Amino acid sequence: MIRLVDLKKSYAAVNALNGVSAQVKPGSITGIVGPNGCGKTTLIKCILGLVVPDQGQIFVDGVEVHSRGWRHRENLGYMPQNPEFPGNLRVNELLEMMADIRGVAPQSRSELIDRFEVQPFLDRPFGTLSGGTKQKVAVVSALMFNPKIIILDEPTVGLDPVSARRFKDLIKARAASGAAVLLVSHILSEMDQLVDNMVFMLEGRVEFSGAASDLRKLSEEGLSIESAVIQFLERREQALPSSRKPLSGEVRS
Predict the structure, then answer these.
(1) Is 49 helix (H, G, I), strand (E, B) or coil?
(2) Are 184 and 152 in contact (CB under 8 A)?
(3) Which pLDDT tens digit goes with each residue over 7-38?
């Protein structure tokens, strides 16, 4: 379980996180949505230990992460939107290197390689792969150790429809087996398919945190996360003075 308590982080005059509190429970998938610049990336970096918050605490399995030197990452799998691994390493060398760094044998590497048809690319340098194949390698690297905590940042971008469906089924199965999954995506229809709980962020703050079914009820139709989020943002934009309204294209759905 991940529990975030009153996280704050500023960059110069920009408040990237302004009192964010939320939790990701075992056995469930929690989605984070919000327009560009709302603080999602900074939040992920804080959990990973790449950014230290100015204020607040992060607990994993009841232990504050700073107190154990970020060792929570031993049970964490992270899949970035754009995987960046050394381009000269062959895929099999990359996966072996990750196993050596972890110091444990990957429990499901072969299964994932077969599921996402990575076998033909194992002897190819990572830098020569297509974007979709790089994403498949990122799936294997993030999940082959069967982590208890899974953080996914736009995970299906670049995946073909068949691989995307296999990935979604896999994530559902991992959550059903007890993993705590945190999913960040701009594909709101994907959120409707996957998540149990939602965190909706805006300007560094949490505007909504709770069951996905409760967020759906905020829309006029009460049918989808997508309609609820879009209607919220439209109502907010209409309420802003013209000088403070976001430029066209700043809000992605």
Answers:
(1) coil
(2) yes
(3) 999 998 888 999 999 999 999 999 999 888 88
Give the position of tokens 């967020």: 215
Q: How far is CA 54 from CA 14, 73, 106, in A?
A: 13, 20, 35
Question: Which domains are delineated in the chain?
Answer: 2-83+147-244 (3.40.50.300)
Question: Taking a C-beta distance cutoff of 8 angstroms, is the pair 183, 30 a contact?
Answer: yes
For 143, counting Cβ atoms within 10 Å of its Cβ (0-12 exposed, 13-18 middle, 19+ buried), the class is buried
Backbone dihedral region of 50: left (phi > 0), alpha (psi from -120 to 50 degrees) or beta?
alpha
Render pLDDT for 199-246 as a digit per residue (tens, 0 to 9). Answer: 999 889 998 899 988 888 877 666 788 888 888 778 777 775 554 444
Count of residues in the chain: 253
Distances in Å between the Cα of 109 and the Cα atoms of 46, 118, 183, 196 are 28, 10, 22, 27
Beta bridge partners, 28, equal 180
Tokens coding 234: 């439209």
What does the alpha-carbon distance between residue 168 and residue 69 come to, in Å, rounded to a whole number? 32
Q: Residue 87, CB half-sphere, CA atoms under 13 Å: how many?
A: 5
Q: How is the beta sheet containing 205-211 ordered, strand by strand?
A: 76-79, 149-153, 180-184, 28-33, 197-202, 205-211
pLDDT at 237 (0 to 100): 72
What the block records as the tokens of 6 is 């009153």
The DSSP 8-state label assigned to residue 90 in this structure reads B
User: Amino acid identity of 89?
Assistant: L
Q: Which residues pair with 78 in a beta bridge?
A: 151
Helix, strand, coil fractions of the chain, as percent rounded to 5: 40, 25, 35
